[in-house]
Structures are given as structure tokens and as C-alpha cells.
Amino acid sequence: xxxxxxxxxxxxxxxxxxxxxxxxxxxxxxxxxxxxxxxxxxxxxxxxxxxxxxxxxxxxxxxxxxxxxxxxxxxxxxxxxxxxxxxxxxxxxxxxxxxxxxxxxxxxxxxxxxxxxxxxxxxxxxxxxxxxxxxxxxxxxxxxxxxxxxxxxxxxxxxxxxxxxxxxxxxxxxxxxxxxxxxxxxxxxxxxxxxxxxxxxxxxxxxxxxxxxxxxxxxxxxxxxxxxxxxxxxxxxxxxxxxxxxxxxxxxxxxxxxxxxxxxxxxxxxxxxxxxxxxxxxxxxxxxxxxxxxxxxxxxxxxxxxxxxxxxxxxxxxxxx
Length: 321
Known about the structure:
Blueprint: H1 2-11, E1 21-27, H2 34-43, E2 48-55, H3 60-73, E3 81-83, H4 118-128, E4 133-137, H5 142-150, E5 158-164, H6 175-178, H7 181-188, E6 194-197, H8 199-202, H9 209-216, H10 221-234, H11 248-254, E7 259-268, E8 279-283, E9 295-301, H12 303-314
Parallel strand pairs: 1-2, 1-4, 2-3, 4-5, 5-6, 6-9
Antiparallel strand pairs: 7-8, 7-9
Helix pairs in contact: 4-5, 5-7
């Protein structure tokens, strides 16, 4: 009987009592809506120990203000945040509309000293950490590449880099890579463990009408704020429902058993104007003798389990810190 009681007590332990995954989170929140939805999911996932949040892409400071607005809404105000790179390393980025910026008010200002310090925040957090950290990046790889080049010591403090970007089978350049091809090449050639969530897989992660209704009909104040952001986004993407591209890296960390992976090598096309920004993937089994695999690519995921977990966390009250 004592053994049964102990077993029940162990099973009843809260999720937050389990070992947490320490991460740095880098986002280009503000254009596509999946960035905001994924950040909300992250803040509602006690399995993650978020050490810092950084933003990149044009108007990086405004993006950081939007991320900070959500972090305050979900009660996570002790996580350091900073805006980072505002453009690509080798070229100027495309600047599409960002209607979500319209949700910001004068009250949504960043903490003092958070503007334009994203790369420094990454470096400092890595070097001060007592253990290696995972970098999760769902936008252009500018901040990560700059951190690697600015202070090479951070390499020894990175457990892995998990990114949403690139494409394996579509024969096209994916937006996150295309928005900073130089940074992407630096990260893929860094020799660090890289897990890649490619567009080939993420493009199928649509929220169904029923899924979206669970969000838009929620009376939870934080979820209602997300609904407002979705509607703002839909003024730009008329008739489209959200696609959760950026959620896949987090799912791969939480539930790798839901994913199918393949090891191989990714080369970023830098020179050709025709194929610029494309990510050429070669499976490990087909690599020449002198080449080494540099990436673990997600080739498939259990979409329904992923979406159910997502909805279960976004339609409840914030768990807060």
C-alpha cells in the first residue's frame, strides 16, 4: 500500500515540477500572426524556462514592444527582453505591412535599456548561464549570427539552435532565410547542433475553422487580446486563417515523439540571383565522404496532437510566473 500511495503522489506532481528546458527565444513578431500565437503558447508552457526574449527584422523595437505587451498580458514581466537587428547583414529586407503594430498604445513601452540591445542580451545571458541554453528562433537569424560572430565564446554555451526556416522540397526560398541569407549561412555553417522546422511541414499547420472558433469565442481576456491581433492581421491577409509555422520548433522540443526527423546537410544559396536564399538539403546517406551532416530536419509532425495541445493552452487563464 505505501508503494501505491507514493506512485499516486508522483503522478500528481504538477507539470512545472518536471525539469524545464532553458531557452532563449528570438522572434520577428508583428507581420504574420503565428509569431504572436506562438509566443502566447510559450508563455503558457511551464516546461520552458525562458531566459530572454529578443526581436529582429525591420522596426525591431516596435516588435519588442508588441512581444512585451503579450508578456505583460500573460504575467511574465521578469523575463528580460530587448530589440535586436533591424536589417539583414548583406542586404535590405522586404518591408510588408505590419497591422498588428496598431494594437500598441503609449503604455506599451519597453523596459528601460531594452531597445537595440538584443545581441548583447543573447551574449550576456549565454555567458552567465550555469548550463547550456537552447536558442529557439522563428524569424531571420540575424541576432543569432551576430552573437556568434561578436563573441565566439557563446558557442560553448549553446546546447542547440532550433529554428523555423528554410525549405527542403518546395524548390523556393523561405521567408525567414531570405530575409537574412548571410545570417542563415553563418548559423548552418556554425558546427552547432541545428534542428530545422522547414516550410514544407509548417505550411500544413492550418488552424481549422473549428480551431479558430475556440480562440475567437474565448472569454479569457488574454485570448481575447489575441483575437484582436488575429483580426488586425486578417486586414492584411484577407480571407486567410492562421498557419502555425512558428509553433513547430517548440513542439519538437516538448514532444519529439510526435515528429519524424532526418539528418543531413543544408547549404544556403548566396550567389545566384535565381536561387538566392534557397536551402539545399542533402540527406546524410547521400553526403560525400568529406561532408558532414549539419542539421536535423523535421520531415513530419502529428498535426492534430500539436493543434490540440496549442488550443488547450491558449484558451485557459494565464498561468503567470
